[in-house]
Amino acid sequence: MRYSLQRMLVAMTLASVYAGVAFGAPHLLAVLLLGIANGLMPAVYAGGVIYSRRSWRAFWIGTAACGMLPSLLATWVYLQLLFDFELDDWTRLLDRSDDAGLLVLRIYTVAIQLLPLLGGVACVLMRSLFKPQRSIMPESGVTE
Asked: What is the pTM assigned to this prediction?
């Protein structure tokens, strides 16, 4: 796989924007955006498994295996938080001070979203280690 400088710069920009939203944004914005991202992740995994080929398919199968259940559980937790909040809780989210509980929620969400990447990389490594070798002689159908 070859990567151009443009692709690397785009990936670095996306990673820095993600880190900025995850840890630098106000609590309300971060919780909403990370919750939406968790809700969309299973669709991204399924699309990657269906539409990719070769090593990329192995990567997406690994991410789906490692990330589907944690992502759905995190979405359920976010929905529970959304419906259990009272007005005082929303004003606390608008406050810029870092409460330990909300910081732990952010770290938990980021970990849930990064764990599937490790699973995808592991799956690609397993594919490259155990990929069947191509036969030197094509099968002609003749038996000996």
From this structure: 0.64
